[in-house]
Amino acid sequence: MKKIGNDWDEILEDEFNSDYYKQIREFLKKEYQTQTIYPSMYDIFNAFKYTSYKNVKAVLLGQDPYHGPNQAHGLCFSVKKEITPPPSLVNIFKELKSDTAIDPPRHGCLIDWANSGVMLLNTVLTVRAGSANSHKNCGWTTFTDNVIKKLNAREQPLVFLLWGNNAKQKNGFLTNPNHLVLSCAHPSPLSASNGFFGCRHFSKTNDFLKKNNIAPIDWHLTDLD
Question: Of these residues, 9, 14, 64, 207, which one is catalytic?
């Protein structure tokens, strides 16, 4: 069984023992043996490793990992520090600056956000190199739908950030009135001007958390050494 190393292990035990998840494992074994797959198999569950269930304050939903070399490392929208930030992430940083006056870093690694309570969850956790959405039908959506349901069931308030149509499709799972759901256009250059820019989701998230006596998220990112 997969070991994450925090409270997700117990919460997801039934998922990891399910027949559908065993099918995902068998599929991935073949894929990693015969294809170039991102992220590294050791990084697939980084969204869970960096943000335990009890520490989640906000959930940012992505689609599937970046499919270019060395970009994906298990956190949606994030890339490793040595990789140039992709256009969607550049637009995220533009909105962050406009909303909070926080200057963007010289890298695109969002681990600091994950450590501050933002679960950076893709709805599909792996992808073939150069082939977006290539693993969308292997069972990951069942797994992450169930993760979203478990987060929705949590009593402590949290914020769900749904950027773009793929993320908005998960809105039907978000039925708990304790939580705040914020949705807008995707930050991609193709759609950012249609409602992502000006959404102010960073400040709205923290306003909601503070209203519920929860420490706000630190949206600053440590710059390169």
Answer: 64
99 three-state secondary structure: helix
What is the C-alpha separation between 101 and 99, in angstroms, rounded?
Answer: 6
Phi-psi region of 77 (alpha: psi -120 to 50; beta: other; left: phi over 0): left
Place of tokens 């960073």: 202
Contact 37, 127 (CB under 8 A): yes
Could you give the 3-state DSSP secondary structure of residue 96? helix
Mean pLDDT value across the chain: 95
Structure pTM?
0.95
With beta carbons less than 8 A apart as the criterion, state whether 171 and 183 touch: yes
7 catalytically annotated? no
Distances (CA, A) of 5 to 32, 45, 50, 114, 183: 23, 10, 10, 15, 31
